[in-house]
Amino acid sequence: MNSPALVSALFVLLLTGVGVAPAPAETASVPDNFRRENLVAWYIAPFDGTRVTPEARAQMLKKLGLKRFAYDWREAHVPEFESEFLSCQKHGIEFFAFWKGHENAYPLMVKYGVKPQIWHPLQTGKGLSNKEKVSSVAEALVPLATRTQEAGLSLGLYNRGGWGGLPDNLVAVCKALRAKGFEHVGIVYNFHHAHLRIANFEEDLRSMMPYLLCLNLNGMADPAVEDVAKADVKVKPIGKGAHEREMIETTIAVGYKGPVGVIGPISSAKVEEVLRENLEGLEQILSTIP
Asked: Does the reported pTM lie above 0.70?
């Protein structure tokens, strides 16, 4: 029988934690939008290394614990659109976004009851002044804004470098379209197209947040040290760059609660391996953020 002294000593040990194995990491500290099941897999269909069917792609996403998919297609994928929708539906994958939209895809969205965001790159505007450029781009996007509005789909202006990749211009065009009655227009911002804005990231993020539909992460090289125009420098796994940790910390600190994506455009590797490396790198960073 245990003595009262021994019972008392054990009670103290339990209270203080002395000699007790540490509890597992508290997953509740990870913001919901950074949890694996809420992340968006982006830029993967054309970068499978070997040709992968829609069914195999959906199975791969499910295996990795990813439940949201943004679809970047090429002409070869057009005949597979319906299979892509069916495979995602079968495996419980949310068809989160569709690159540029396509007239063959809109009826399928209705047929399968999905409403993905439509992501479209913002081009350089025409005109001498920035005001003229913003106006010309907004006007050129009216047909797409009308088409997506009628379909009940959000339209994301996508940064892909140059004039159209600058946050101030993304915000200005977004505001111009909303002033025309297109309240469904927002912004999709990609780390891998934003190396030259690393130093301005917090300011840029705060300005875009009211319109931000998705924020896609990447390992961020130091543009002062590496040539970020090179493909293998521009796209790095999360955790292998110099600046993504601080950018992720900033994203959490300023209170961004919207969708977050991970990308896979590395042609020399299987997309499953690329996504897994990104997920593990992101989770390692998150585990060390207070």
From this structure: yes
